[in-house]
Amino acid sequence: MKYTIDKVLSHGFVMGSIKIDEISKHSDTKTSKEKEMNKFLSSIEKSVLELDNMNDDSYIMIQKLMIQDPLLKENGIKYINNGKTAREAINLVMSDIINSLEASSSDYLKERTNDILDVTKRLINNLGNKKKKTIDKPFILYTDNLLPSYVINNRDNLIGVIAKSGGYTSHSAILCRSFDIPYVIATIDCKNSDTACIDTRKNKIAINPDVDDMERYIEEINASKKFIKKAVNHKGFLFLANISLTSEIKKVLEYDFDGIGLYRTELIFMNSNRPLSFDEQYKIYSNVSLALGDRSVCFRTFDVGDDKKLKYLKTKSKGLNNYLENKDIFETQIKALLKSNIFGNVKIMFPMIETIEEFMELKNWTIKIAKENNYKIPPIGMMLETKKALENIKDFRSADFISLGTNDLCSELYHIDRMNRLNDFNEYLDDLLDKIKVVIDFCNKNNILLSVCGELASVKEVAVKFYKLGIRNLSVSPSMIQMLNSSYNEFISGN
Ligand code: PEP
Ligand code: MG
């Protein structure tokens, strides 16, 4: 039986045995109020300890912040004092949070629901002394909703995920992309131990394929795995990586990327109900700088606003206003980034710039912070991702580098929904390339390093056109590089 994939959240091509996720049924025998209170408080402690022993990345930190939120404890205690069990109290506190997120009009915030469910599951697991079950054979999960902890706990054997719902910016999707686990949205008919083949290149899922198809799949899957390490071979393009999690650095180094072209730092800020401290941020950024050594890492200051609202940010819009309205948060981030520049390999980039005045205000602000604290001034550049900046490109001679954000740019220029942004690029590509040519000429004339970091950089036929125009720096998600690099080389060596 073949099914069409509704949405691809993480690319890949795998075949394996299906496991249907069944929601575990916990028994909930009520004990005394005092015992329920102890169970609740010790589950908070155990959960924090558990997270302390896990990888140090933003996703773990965010879960820790959620669990340590004083409101969680306070409201849980209130529910238990009103006669609820520890388990009921956890479910009630968490569903209050979920309800408030679901009332939001932002898809981004709605997608955070899975993180809350994940924290709920962790707290409930830690009410008793039961060990978590993991599966020791490779499998493809079929589930309603994928939780981040499930990916982490099963990452050695989880080879693919088919879910009935889920979003591109959810942590589960980010983790799957980081671990190269294909993750797709589709509704299929299957049972445990059926064989499934997920092929995101063809947008298809096959359940129990016949023998001929199976042999073909095995051959194609093996062929697609040819490049495991050193996938980047540095001819033609300088390949940089787009990442948002510290755990992705391993892959950046294994694939031998030339550096990080876009570190989306807003992921570090997600879900926390308070801004991250200087020390917390410094720890993350300096680890990245240290790991990259002599390769550069370009941190984009937190790009939150519009649909990506955070409770503690006073944000009306993206770009400069976002930082002016959240001065302390911006300054703390800049200070942490400047101090992290251990090897002189850090670059700082501002998103959603429209005018040179905006860029200069942020650049001068950063230089002032560097001077006040005796930090070296790193290269300071901008995303070129607004129509206004594109129209005013000749003003931006003082940018040390420019990175073309085709996602936002195309959505503004051609009114494209970002969720489907790659589908119809042929309709506007010629016009876009004409506009980009002007940018390339400007950057060449003024000796400004230009790269492309929007999703179009990972579309082979588009990248080839970028190359013909003169672009040599592409920043792409590490999970795309195996698929892309061989084709680029074929093109480049033929020219
Ligand atoms: C872009 O807009 O092209 C981009 C790379 O930034 P983001 O996708 O994070 O908005
Ligand atoms: Mg953008």
Enumerate the distinct ligands: phosphoenolpyruvate, magnesium ion
Q: Unreliable stretches, pLDDT < 50, 5 or more residues? A: none
Shape: globular
Strand order of the largest sheet: 1-8-7-3-4-5-6-2
Overall radius of gyration: 24 Å
CATH H-level superfamily title of the largest domain = Phosphoenolpyruvate-binding domains
CATH architecture of the largest domain: Alpha-Beta Barrel
- Cα distance, first to last residue? 43 Å
CATH topology tier name of the largest domain? TIM Barrel
Structural class: alpha/beta
Largest sheet features = 8 strands, mixed
Q: How many distinct beta strands?
A: 16
Strand fraction equals: 15-25%
Question: Helical stretch count?
Answer: 20
Overall average pLDDT? 85
How many structural domains? 3
User: Helicity, in percent?
Assistant: 40-55%
CATH class of the largest domain: Alpha Beta
Task: Summarize the structure in words.
The chain is α/β, with parallel strands linked by helices. The protein folds into three domains: 115 residues, 3-Layer(bba) Sandwich (Glucose Oxidase, domain 1), CATH 3.50.30; 93 residues, Enzyme I, Chain A, domain 2, CATH 1.10.274.10; 256 residues, TIM Barrel. It contains 20 helices and 16 strands. It has an eight-stranded mixed β-sheet with strand order 1-8-7-3-4-5-6-2. α1 packs antiparallel against α2, α1 packs antiparallel against α3 and α4 runs antiparallel to α6. The site of phosphoenolpyruvate has 10 residues, from β10 and α17.
